[in-house]
From TrEMBL:
Quaternary structure note: Homodimer.
GO molecular function: D-alanine-2-oxoglutarate aminotransferase activity
Domain of life: Bacteria
Listed EC numbers: 2.6.1.21
The protein's name in its UniProt record: D-alanine aminotransferase
NCBIfam families: D_amino_aminoT
Transferase in keyword set: yes
Gene3D superfamilies, A to Z: 3.30.470.10, D-amino Acid Aminotransferase, subunit A, domain 2
Organism: Robertmurraya mangrovi
Similarity remark: Belongs to the class-IV pyridoxal-phosphate-dependent aminotransferase family.
Length: 278
């Protein structure tokens, strides 16, 4: 494990953030999580591009190019000597006496590199449970912002209900999970929420779309309701850390036969092939 704070490598327990750090005080920043498999990053450029987009969306003055961030991240992973790991990178509006207005100071860039803790194989083999909750987040969920309070509260509620994830909805229309994108399979087609400001444009979502096209499975980016979610043939969620995770029960309703379905399995098999070929 290793930490990085504004140009210096640190051990994780020594990484100290000043009280007047805007990430700490306001959640005034953005972040990314990038998975490395056997020393190779999965879709690094896409993650870095999203980081830069999130930064621009909250008007962080970023000087680094995509290539600069690539170097920074690759160097940190090399330094950590970890092969299967997650890089967490965060950019905030810097360190300045607490005032809401933007300070005229450099941004802070911090990172951690930690060993990946993938979900247990039986979770993917048997599928996991989810609950449906209201999406109480703000209007700009396409930004990977540090402000995760509604996500955290919903995830905790899910966990306390014995569930892996909460699938969120606005007025009965599914947006996404608390830390994942959500999909249903109906009559052999994949449906997922379209890329609007209401959801994060997931990098794993991008991978699933590419894989679906390769496998000739229709990938339909259209809004769908919680009713359709409950009556779907298959449901799954995706994220960098959980990859493709089958959902077999939502609230008290079994999905399909209550076991991971064939389309989800095919997608995951192809996903694993892509990882093996990195
Ligand atoms: N949606 C939300 C709200 C997330 O926090 C995440 C990831 O943590 C995702 C979707 C999935 O994004 P990705 O596949 O890029 O990890």
């Amino acid at each position: 494990e290793i930490g990085y704070v504004n140009g210096k490598y640190v051990s994780l327990d020594e990484a100290v953030i000043p009280i007047d750090e805007r990430g700490h005080q306001f959640g005034d920043g953005v972040y990314e999580v990038i998975r490395f498999y056997n020393g190779k990053p999965f879709m690094l450029v896409e993650h870095v591009e999203r980081l830069i987009n999130s930064s621009k969306a909250i008007r962080l003055p970023i000087e680094q190019s995509v290539e600069d961030f690539n170097q920074l991240i690759l160097q940190a992973v090399e330094k950590s000597e970890l092969k299967d790991c997650n890089v967490y990178i965060q950019i905030t509006r810097g360190i300045a006496t607490r005032l809401h207005l933007f300070p005229n100071v450099p941004v802070s860039i911090t990172m951690t590199v930690r060993e990946a803790k993938p979900p247990k194989p039986e979770m993917r083999d048997n599928g996991v449970k989810a609950i449906i909750l209201d999406d109480e987040r703000w209007a700009n969920c396409y930004i990977k912002s540090l402000n995760l309070l509604p996500n955290i509260l919903a995830k905790q509620t899910a966990d306390e209900a014995g569930c892996y994830e909460a699938i969120l909805n606005r007025d009965g229309v599914v947006t996404e999970g608390t830390s994942s994108n959500a999909y249903i399979i109906k009559e052999g087609k994949i449906f997922t929420a379209p890329l609007t400001k209401q959801i994060l444009p997931g990098i794993t979502r991008m991978a699933v779309k590419r894989i679906a096209e390769k496998l000739n499975i229709d990938f339909v980016e259209e809004p769908f309701t919680t009713d359709l979610l409950l009556s779907a043939d298959e449901v799954f969620v995706t994220s960098t850390t959980s990859e493709i995770m089958p959902i077999v029960k939502i609230d008290d309703n079994s999905i399909g036969n209550g076991v991971p379905g064939p389309v989800t399995k095919r997608l995951y098999e192809q996903f694993q092939l892509e990882i093996a070929a990195l």
